[in-house]
Description:
Blueprint: E1 3-5, E2 12-14, H1 15-20, H2 36-43, E3 50-52, H3 70-81, E4 87-94, E5 97-104, H4 115-131, E6 135-141, H5 149-168, E7 173-181, H6 183-186, E8 195-198, H7 209-216, H8 227-232, E9 238-239, H9 242-257
Parallel strand pairs: 5-6, 6-7, 7-8, 8-9
Antiparallel strand pairs: 1-2, 3-4, 4-5
Helix pairs in contact: 4-5
This protein binds zinc ion (ZN).
Amino acid sequence: xxxxxxxxxxxxIEKERFILNLKVxxxxxxxxxxxxxxxxxxxxxxxxxxxxANNIASxxxxxxYDVKSYDERLREAKLKSGLDEAIIVGEARISGFKVALGVxxxxxxxxxxxxxxxxxxxxxxxxxxxxEIPLIIFCASGGARMQEGIMSLMQMAKAVSSIxxxxxxxxxxxxxxxxxxxGGVSASFATVADIIIAEPGALFCFAGPRVIEQTIKKKLxxxxxxxxxxxxxxxxxxxVPRRELRxxxxxxxxxxxx
Length: 258
Ligand SMILES: [Zn+2]
């Protein structure tokens, strides 16, 4: 029987049990990475997701090269993740409620925000406004995509101004923070939601604890940047285990949409 080792407690878990448990460790409750397609499948009503804005693609406009070209990195990311970018957006239903949905995937270049991620957020925000339906975004990101230089940083302002237009229309916007959410995403559309939900143990911060420790040369608290600490400090609204997320989103949709 195939087994998987928990990244946190290192115990062996029967693969089938792990998958049925939505990739949450049955021993220590560690919420493992889940890809965007699986996330959509466990969140929305069966067969209700229809993708939009999938006709735009990142290009290497700076001819950026570190140890590999950006073009090559994009090709690799597509092969590895089976996605064409770090976010999928579209319309779906959750317990019958129509929603505009965005789901980021960390396996595509660390969920980094480049110009296509920003553009898709703008387009799904526009869709939410056009259809007068709530917006829900699942975040997972290491930050801005350095291969796009300043253009990637500009996506922060673009995403937030798109969210502001949703606010002007008095449409609800919920954000679900998954492990990890940091950098430009945590500093823009992840933190301006009406309701910020996090999965247990999710890292949610601007700079990661290792970078900060190296910079200030001090030891940080054990739980720095975790969902639990963020909840205590009022940075997020609730922590919801993965198996209860769909139900909680349904409750919120009932409250906000009626
Ligand atoms: Zn575990």
